[in-house]
Write a structure and sequence with these properties.
Layout: H1 7-25, H2 30-47, H3 54-67, H4 75-84, H5 92-104
Helix pairs in contact: 1-2, 2-3
Length: 140
Amino acid sequence: MDERRTIGANERAAAATAAGALAEALGLPAARHAAVAGLYEAVRQVRTATPAQLPARLGVLHDVAAAVPAQLVPAPLAADLARLLAGPRPGGRHAYWSRARTLAEASGWHPEEECPCPGDAPCVCGLREGARPDRTAVRA
């Protein structure tokens, strides 16, 4: 295991190493079986991902699936891949901002803002329900 890798990358490497060793012991092409095992592990990681992890895990799955020749992928796995990779490749920007929003809004409570303008005067802030801000009024 490599300390610098993510847990998911280490899990994919462990699956590939185990499958490669078993294939080699059976006299089968180890590299092919290792690649398919890594792909199976990437699919498992996408299936078990939390909503916060899903965009990054799908991005990894796109990369891993592109590296494995299509003729090596078994039919059940190919069906899962077709379903999981049907959408566009998720960008890192969405995951970054989604995580930032989660950290910034930890309580989940958003108090309603009230209009600070006097009740008998026109609204200049735009918070009063049904009122548009008066662009001619000057704020003090």
